[in-house]
Amino acid sequence: MEPRATLTKREKEVVLELLDGGRVATIAELLGLSPKTDSNHLKQAFWKLDVHSQAELIELARREPARLGLEEALSARSQLARDELEARCERAIERLIERIERAHAGPPGLSQLRNAVRAALPLDPGTRRDWRDWLELRARSGTAGGAAASAQRMVDEWRDSASGTVARLQEAGRVRTDVEPAELLRSLGALALGAGTRLLGSSSDASVDQELRMIDGFIDALSAPERADDDHRG
Q1: Residue 1 belongs to some domain of the structure
Q2: What span, in angstroms and rounded, lies between the C-alpha atoms of 197 and 99?
Q3: Assuming Cys at both sites, which of 90, 119, 146, 205 could form a disulfide with 141, CB separation 3.0 to 4.6 Å?
Q4: Contact partners, residue 50, CB within 8 Å, separation at least 6
Q5: Using CA atoms, how far apart are residues 3 and 47, in angstroms rounded to an integer?
């Protein structure tokens, strides 16, 4: 059904704010209107679109934005939100790399790898926000192409540069030498990604303990055998 009349610019603004979760009082304040005027704009939109509640209006606007003349405005808002998300993800990856690099400090040992993974996992509110942003960007972009691929390249470039840390652990006889450093980091990264994703769904003490034990088991399996240690010392 076509609308009875075209929404005015102000009515569209009110509907857009409603889509963002605004309420009559907050929308009125944001747009510099009185609550009564804001309510009147909503009533006019109801009549023009033949809907009877805010819920019906929101559903219609999401389902048929063109019918309300909102396509361009929603597209612009979507792009702005995406740009902000990309910027947050870039900063999140920079923070992640800083935390991991701090965890690598100290004498060479498997504890460096354990600390690095713990620094990367969503074990506190800040890292959980970073992970949610990153996963949302991946979901929006897909894992190939676009901003998600650009962010992934940042991770890949850091991983390549961090291969030297694993090589030093191998030289020190702490890590098996039959595994390429870059491949080891890719495997450990994939393991951490799975663990982190699951922890976003449940961050209970039991869940954290289970995920850390699984990762520790993987890291323990990287320990160089005694023969490798002897060869290194010899």
Answers
A1: no
A2: 19
A3: 146
A4: 1, 3, 4
A5: 9
Contact 196, 129 (CB under 8 A): no
Residue 74 forms part of a structural domain: no
Q: How many domains does the chain have?
A: 2
pLDDT in tens, the chain (234 residues): 566 778 898 988 888 888 888 888 888 888 888 989 989 999 999 999 889 998 998 898 888 888 888 888 888 777 777 788 888 888 888 888 888 888 777 777 888 888 888 888 999 888 898 888 888 777 766 544 455 565 566 667 767 777 888 888 888 888 899 989 888 888 888 888 899 989 988 889 999 999 999 999 999 998 877 534 444 444
- CB contact at 8 A, 123 and 203: yes
What's the pTM value of the predicted model, to 2 decimals?
A: 0.59
Calpha distance 33→232 (Å, rounded): 76
**How far, rounded to the nearest angstrom, does the alpha carbon of residue 229 sit from its chain's CA centroid?**
41
Helix (H), strand (E) counts: the chain: 12, 0
| Cα 80 from Cα 20, distance rounded (Å) | 13
**Amino acid at the residue 205:** D
For 41, what's the count of Cα atoms within 13 Å in the CB-facing half-sphere? 24
3-class SS at 223? Answer: strand
Structural domain boundaries enclosing 128: 81-233
Q: How far apart are CA 97 and CA 123, in angstroms?
A: 16
175: β partners: 223
* 140 lies in the same domain as 192: yes
Q: Are residues 201 and 120 in the same domain?
A: yes
Say if residue 200 is in the same domain as residue 220. yes
Question: 61 and 168 share a domain?
Answer: no
